[in-house]
Design goal:
With 268 residues, the protein is an all-alpha fold. The chain has three domains: 1-74, no CATH class; 83-203, no CATH class; 208-268, no CATH class. The protein contains 18 helices and two strands. Strands 1-2 form a two-stranded antiparallel sheet. The radius of gyration is 22 Å and the shape is globular. The structure holds heme C (6 copies). One heme C binds next to helix 1, helix 2, helix 3 and helix 5.
């Protein structure tokens, strides 16, 4: 098992190095990116990952399963065979839609909302939030988001009760009534074919705004509390750092929403 792994890693290293040596277009940055040092680092990240435990190895992603050709820099295509729902949903949201349209990846430089200066050129793909080699989802759930997002709502999250609960937990238990990360609200867990998956469409729970109430908040809070929170703009801006002050007539509101939606659907 161990020697088979080393054989794979060694073969891949040789192939990767050979590829870069013979490629006439190799910029220095890429040549550097496959130094022995970096390969060792990648191997180490992978060793500690859920993938290694599940026998998903270098060739699972770096080799075309039919032609057996080496893929030096795989894309989301390499994940589809095992994570179809994640890839499909990612490509439908704001984060992934440009890739779906065969455009260059989304970067913070293209944004209208505030973004971190240091991240302006960071490209959005499966490797952005959870490194494809470590597939660490705890880092992905908050820290990764805050490496780009820089608006008050995002920055305030770390002061919230939700954040304190997550920090105390230190992991992403499932199911959980206690951990609320950026991802809990924006990349919610859902069921498809009796299997829980993470809906990677980051636009989904925003449109319409009350979708988040049903899909997310009501897993833990009552309906009234949830509506009163989510329609309180100030509370959204501070990322839910206090009890809601609004006292919406919830049922009336829900009815209004449903009427509006029915009307919209009738028009479509
Ligand atoms: C889960 C799929 C997956 C597994 C398993 C995997 N890789 Fe990768 N690897 C990728 C993806 C995707 C990229 C491209 C990341 C990006 O967009 O920069 C990549 C990038 C790389 C790169 C950098 C290429 C470049 O041009 O910067 C190297 C080197 C590499 N992988 C080596 C390995 C080795 C060695 C293993 C096994 C120990 C491995 N990978 C396991 C998916 C995987
Ligand atoms: C050959 C199948 C296979 C391929 C290809 C594959 N994965 Fe996985 N992946 C798995 C399995 C199996 C697990 C662990 C069980 C589960 O949660 O489904 C997993 C788990 C994960 C997790 C969760 C890790 C955790 O600690 O909870 C992430 C994130 C992930 N994969 C991302 C990717 C990405 C990104 C790619 C493509 C670059 C990819 N995978 C390619 C099979 C695969
Ligand atoms: C915007 C950040 C982000 C991007 C981009 C991203 N992911 Fe994720 N992904 C997450 C987070 C956060 C979680 C864990 C959420 C949770 O468990 O509550 C996760 C979880 C997963 C899981 C584990 C699902 C499970 O049921 O345990 C898989 C598989 C996965 N991602 C695959 C992918 C693939 C494939 C891509 C590219 C198409 C991708 N991710 C791109 C943030 C991201
Ligand atoms: C590589 C930088 C980057 C990372 C990492 C990132 N985002 Fe984004 N995100 C963006 C950009 C750029 C936009 C588009 C903003 C715009 O158009 O003004 C965006 C948009 C969004 C939107 C608005 C979607 C819409 O339809 O309007 C949400 C919500 C969001 N991101 C949540 C998250 C969450 C949650 C995470 C972490 C799990 C995350 N993002 C990680 C760059 C990033
Ligand atoms: C408890 C749920 C919840 C948590 C946790 C949460 N958000 Fe949000 N987020 C919302 C709601 C609700 C909105 C929509 C407000 C609206 O419709 O105007 C929103 C809106 C956004 C937007 C879109 C802003 C815009 O103007 O387009 C971004 C980006 C975003 N959140 C990022 C994040 C990030 C990053 C984190 C973590 C650091 C996070 N959110 C944590 C509920 C949450
Ligand atoms: C996984 C469970 C869970 C989810 C999902 C969740 N919350 Fe919470 N929320 C909690 C817990 C636990 C607390 C802290 C104890 C309490 O105040 O009930 C909390 C606290 C709050 C508070 C009070 C904060 C304070 O400082 O007093 C507000 C407001 C809130 N949540 C709104 C929301 C909204 C809106 C959503 C959906 C967008 C949501 N929550 C989703 C579990 C959750």
């Amino acid at each position: 098992m161990k020697s088979a792994l080393w054989l794979t890693v060694t073969c891949l290293s040789i192939l990767l190095l050979a590829f870069y040596v013979i490629s006439p277009f190799t910029p220095n940055a890429i040549a550097d990116s496959v130094s022995q040092e970096q390969l060792a680092e990648i191997e180490q990240l992978w060793q500690g990952s859920t993938h290694a435990l599940a026998d998903i190895n270098c060739s699972s992603c770096h080799q075309n399963q039919e032609s057996k050709a080496l893929i030096v820099k795989p894309t989301q295509e390499s994940c589809v065979s095992c994570h179809e729902a994640e890839v499909e949903t990612f490509l439908l949201g704001k984060h992934g839609i440009r890739l779906n349209e065969k455009l260059s990846p989304l970067t913070p430089a293209m944004a209208n909302i505030p973004m971190k200066e240091s991240a302006l050129d960071k490209q959005m793909n499966c490797n952005t939030c959870h490194d494809v080699h470590s597939v660490n989802t705890v880092v992905a759930a908050v820290d990764s988001c805050l490496s780009c997002h820089n608006d008050p709502h995002s920055l305030n999250y770390e002061k919230s009760q939700h954040s304190k609960l997550f920090l105390a937990e230190g992991k992403l238990p499932r199911p959980s009534v206690e951990s609320v990360t950026c991802a809990t609200c924006h990349l919610p867990r859902e069921e498809r074919n009796e299997k829980v998956f993470v809906n990677h469409n980051n636009t989904y729970t925003l449109l319409p705004r009350d979708r988040m109430v049903k899909e997310v908040c009501m897993n833990c809070h009552g309906m009234e509390y949830s509506y009163n929170s989510i329609f309180d703009d100030e509370l959204v801006e501070t990322n839910f750092d206090r009890l809601p002050k609004l006292h919406l007539e919830t049922i009336k509101l829900v009815r209004q929403f449903e009427k509006r939606r029915e009307k919209q659907e009738a028009q479509d």
